[in-house]
Specification:
The chain has 3 domains: 90 residues, Rossmann fold, CATH 3.40.50; 62 residues, no CATH class; 145 residues, 2-Layer Sandwich (D-amino Acid Aminotransferase, Chain A, domain 1), CATH 3.30.470. It is 34% helix and 22% strand. It is built from 10 helices and 13 strands. The strands form 3 sheets. Strands 8, 9, 10, 11, 12 and 13 form a 6-stranded antiparallel sheet that branches. A hairpin with a 5-residue loop joins strand 12 and strand 13. It binds adenosine-5'-diphosphate and magnesium ion. The site of magnesium ion has 2 residues, from loops. The site of adenosine-5'-diphosphate (ADP) has 18 residues, from strand 5, strand 7, strand 12 and strand 13.
Length: 335
Amino acid sequence: MGKKSRSEILICHQTVPDDALPDEKDVLEQTEKISAALVNLGYDVNVVQADSSFSFISSFAGNKPLAVFNLVETFNGNAVNAHLVPLILEQLNIPVTGNSSSAIFLTTNKVLAKDILLANNIPTADWHIKGRGEEFQKGMYIFKPVSEDASIGITGENLKNLLSSNEADEAIEYFEKKYKIPFFCEKFIDGREFNVSVIGNNGEPRVFFPAEMIFFQNGHENRILCYDSKWNEGSEKYDQSRRTFDLGDEDRKLIKKLKMICEKCWKIFKLSGYARVDFRVDSKNTPFVLEINANPCLSPDSGLFAAAQNEGISYDQLVNIILEESLNEVKGKNS
Ligand SMILES: Nc1ncnc2c1ncn2[C@@H]1O[C@H](COP(=O)(O)OP(=O)(O)O)[C@@H](O)[C@H]1O
Ligand SMILES: [Mg+2]
């Protein structure tokens, strides 16, 4: 590594194998785009990969960088351990962009996050995991990985009409065997889908205008954001889902509710930097939180940037806000 300067920003991301799928390769595009933005902003930029040998720690030896721009989504191939990198940086007292290790830990495990949401009276769809003996409610369920993001392991076959917890457990076992990661199932909310992006502003949440996901019927019989609709460019499902900020007056009350829930989530999970909350809304206009994404994707075609752009914020400005916020936070913590 070359000599460090106080204007150095170190971008940190997970290692990406050559044969990685598009959801994993996406972090390389984010690195490239954020690096270009940081250079435009006048910073020196270096990139390190966080691998399980922890060798990236040696790049912090000697002169510390001004901050680490944390793009780590998985550690040692596992989303559950993504919080380890900010944990190490917190220990070393190096400013890190985005969320704290604890916020990342508490939101990455969807089942844990749902328990915390429920304990705080925030509606989230009923769910079932193996070995938890609650009374089972019959109906349509969606099977999801407990901790992976990016719609990994989600296709049309993940929707099932279930009559008993035995049926649910059998299907969970099927998906766990197929994808080799833990699964759970959640009541399917047959309704509209929104994602709402939030950035930190001196520690307080600034909630952007919600985006609705529109599904065009011919390619989307299930109206869900499955793996193909997020990553398989050129596939029918990819082409047949769109994000829109064009919401009508009749949605004013709903928008207010969505924004209020995001503010609550920000406080409850002690989020910081940037986050995105995914919702489905049922026929009674009740929003259910599907998941909280601490440190969601920041690529130019991401939901977070689309929401920022919708409020007149450029890509370089967004990167600058996120970086500045991480520097303010550390000052705040140390004072
Ligand atoms: N309970 C649910 N009801 C309806 N659709 C759902 C539900 N849970 C997930 N989905 C669909 O699956 C997509 C991915 O689920 P999500 O929980 O956001 O996980 P991730 O984005 O981390 O893979 C959502 O965007 C939505 O389209
Ligand atoms: Mg999601």
